Structure formats: structure tokens, C-alpha cells
Prior knowledge:
This protein has one domain (about 5-125). About 40% of the residues lie in helices and about 25% in strands. It has 4 helices and 5 strands. It has helices at about 30-35, 65-75, 80-95, 110-125; strands at about 5-10, 20-30, 35-45, 55-65, 105. A hairpin with an 8-residue loop joins strand 1 and strand 2. The chain starts with 6 loop residues before the first strand and ends with a helix.
Amino acid sequence: MVENFRNFETGPDPFGRSWKVAFRWQQNAISIRHADAIDVKWEISCAAPDQENEEQEKVVALPLPVLIRIAAEQKRSITDSWCMKLGGLHLIEMISTWQDMDKQLVTANYDELSAYAARIAIADHQPA
Length: 128
């Protein structure tokens, strides 16, 4: 599991490249695009110095009804750090599979977020 979801590297992507990932912000999407979701924004760039610097912005939308359902199932609170981790894990999956990398805004679904939440719960309960 990534130790610091604010700045990390991930990869390889299907083309063998690594990517630098930087958290930019998260916000209730109703205030910016009238959606019932939490938007988590990332800036990514190719980490390889010999590769063309391919900077991109990605926003991972976490639907609030899905977050509420998963939080209730796990008996946990919806926190900023949990949302950042969920969004980060979805972005890692996107990069590793190249799924939806042509989009700037991507909405994660229940099955994806539930799997990420389970991984976070396991990592949170392991002794350091």
C-alpha cells in the first residue's frame, strides 16, 4: 500500500513507464459541478527522465451514496484521508491498466471502491 497518498510513484503502466502522482485537492462535487460526489484531483506525470513529460490532470469522482454504503458496511466514518486513499487507489488501477486514461474525470463504482476500502481496512489494521 502507498505510504503517502499526497505524493507517490506508481507503475508500470502497460507501456512499462512509471508515473509521479501528486494530490491537488478534494472537494464536494455539488459545489463545482452539481454532482453528489467527492471529487479528488491529481496531477500525474511520466517519471522516466528519457520519456516525453506527459503531465495530466485526473479527477476521480467518488459517488456519495456509494461512500455512505461502504462506510456503513465497514462501520467507519467518511474522512478526507479515506477519500484520498480511495481516489489514489483508483488512479493507481487506472494507470496500471490504462483504463479510462483518455478521460480527465472518472467516476469509480461500488465494486471498485468496495475493493479499495477493504484493502485500506486491512492496511490500517496491520501492525507497523
